[in-house]
Specification:
By secondary structure, this protein is of the alpha/beta class. The chain has two domains: 149 residues, 3-Layer(aba) Sandwich (Rossmann fold); 72 residues. Strands 5-4-1-6-7-8 form a six-stranded parallel β-sheet, covered by helices on one side. Strands 2-3 form a two-stranded antiparallel sheet. Helix 1 crosses helix 4.
Length: 241
């Protein structure tokens, strides 16, 4: 797909920045399931998705490898970070990509993605490593829509550091951007960079119950139940301004 210059309008963000997991890609059966399996493998304890979201509600646990390691050892195990990471990758990828990654789901329909790209620059700031993001972009054929793409390899500090947002802004007014994320570290990064932030949390979910108030406390403009609601939200916002 040939990348065209976005058509700007006064009340529309010049750049829309997306987190990946929980925003553009469903993770309940991929990353989140893998965390639960890793904890059970090393501790023998069956932990729950609700407990996982309690961890996600704390600053500093955007990285699922880091979260898994901290959780495993908090339950009395004495396991190295490298051992936890290795088991996580084994379960996530599986043999011939038949691990949990096969359940990955792209959440933003292509027509909506195309329309947004015609009005704004679309960028990514994610806690993923590049290999994992490359697999997703190639599988769902969405790579041409996003530039720049900031993964953990491209920053010296991960979220909640705003470094990735600064790289994307490249000197532009932070108020001209919009960042969409699903966790506390996303909101903290946006707050530090003075970038307007919108949370994405499924309604009637553990994520919403545990995190929506916290995200609003961190100056989220709104909480959307699904990324598919973004276009309507932007239209309504534009009419109000």
């Amino acid at each position: 797909m040939k990348k065209s210059s976005p058509r700007q309008s006064e009340n529309f963000p010049s750049v829309i920045i997306f987190d990946i997991d929980g925003v553009l890609v469903g993770t309940k059966k991929t990353y989140l399931l893998t965390v639960l399996q890793v904890v059970k493998h090393f501790t023998g304890k069956r932990v729950t998705m609700r407990e996982l979201h309690e961890w996600k509600n704390r600053p500093g646990y955007n990285d699922d490898w880091k979260l898994s390691h901290a959780w495993v050892n908090s339950l009395g195990a004495n396991v190295s970070f490298e051992d936890v990471r290795a088991k996580f990758l084994e379960l996530y990828w599986g043999k011939n990509h038949q691990g949990n990654v096969r359940f990955e789901e792209w959440l933003l329909p292509k027509p909506a993605l195309r329309r947004l790209s015609q009005r704004a620059q679309l960028a990514v700031f994610t806690g993923r490593v590049l290999d994992e993001l490359d697999y997703t972009f190639d599988r769902f054929r969405v790579r041409p829509y996003f530039d720049p793409v900031i993964t953990v390899e491209k920053v010296t500090e991960g979220k909640p550091s705003p470094e990735g947002l600064y790289k994307i802004l490249d000197g532009r007014d932070p108020a001209s951007a919009l960042y969409l994320g699903d966790n506390v570290d996303d909101a903290l990064a946006a707050q530090s960079a003075n970038v307007p932030f919108v949370g994405i949390l499924p309604p009637r979910s553990d994520e919403f119950r545990q995190r929506s108030t916290r995200l609003k406390d961190l100056r989220a403009l709104d909480i959307l139940g699904h990324i598919k609601e973004l276009e309507v939200w932007l239209r309504v916002r534009g009419r109000r301004e």
